[in-house]
Give the backbone structure.
Amino acid sequence: MKKLLRGTGLFLVLSAFMGVSAAHAEVSEETAYILNTLLFLIGGFLVMWMAAGFCMLEAGLVRTKNVATMCLKNIGLFAIAGIMYWAIGYNLMYMDVTSYMGTFEWWTAGETAAAEAIDTSGGYASASDWFFQMVFVATAASIVSGTLAERIKLFPFFIFVVVLTGVIYPIQGSWEWGAGWLDQMDFSDFAGSTLVHSTGGWAALTGAILLGARKGKYAADGSVRPIPGSSLPLATLGTFILWLGWFGFNGASQLALGSAIDAVAVSQIFANTNMAAAGGVVAAILMTKLLYKKVDLTMALNGALAGLVSITAEPLTPTIGQAILIGGLGGVLVVLAVPLLDKLKIDDVVGAIPVHLVCGIWGTLAVPITNDAVPFMAQLTGVVAIGAFVSIASAVVWLVLKYTMGIRMSEEDEDRGSDLAELGLEAYPEFGHGSQKL
């Protein structure tokens, strides 16, 4: 009897007991509606938890004098992203999309809990979809935050986030997820290697170029001065939080849990997501040992994130072995891209450009390797088109901010740290300027 109650046998026994035949094992439309909605909500709060991961990662990789500012930026950008995605972004990305964008209007839910009956034909509650899509746009903004840390002014950054989350991100997102022109040519980006991560990466890259490097980062003779962060344990915690949140990021992008096929797909996505991150960590550890004779913890942390970004464009079709290799190559790319940026004197405080831009491109171009229904030229077209649009649009916004209100802190404020200059407080007052007065 115990053997009969294992796995699907349990379902059949219970079905027989309730007088339901195995031929009618499919769930009802309402049950599928509930399960799909639950997937969106669980995935959404896991992705929201990634905001804490970005915050801890960035707080750990900046100097002590800038930690409080990073915390404020991360909670501020998440709030701004939510408001802008409600006010403009969601409908611009999904409502009545032409080939290039939707409509400029705020979003409203299609149903209410106060209704006597709910139309379940849509497959999920509209608010659950809005919530799940909203937390993605906040992820893109978080990428910019880490790259430009320690020298950008607070309010110019927030203004950029308003434009990024309300206009730039939704327009390019509509090209694929809103069934726009890229979707029509069979471009595929399952959970956002390009639409989320490369978009944040391009915005960060243009900002870093126009903002310039931190004072003392690059010497006149071309040498690079390492600037250690405040807390590697905090950065490690942030990485683990992001790793956990990524199961919601990729898994819930299946967009359905109302059938056994969907349940198997979500399970495979979880497994591939995890193993791609593992491949990225191991590859980064081996590469830093090979190149520098010592293992770099920050590279290992970014290796995990590189693997996660790399698998995000197609986490369903690879085998576990292929997922490890895709993530592993992402880890290699990060280790190679970080010194390349330094040679170009592009100062990326947390390594977000190698992780999110470089690996976002790699992950998108790798989709046809495991999914032969996706043409390589469509992937390349999407990477180039989105890169060009986001870069140009971001550069325009950054330039307007630079020549109106300014985007960089003064040299004196940079020396003091953004915590005192922007906030008038310190994250660790017992170790900072305040302790010297005691």
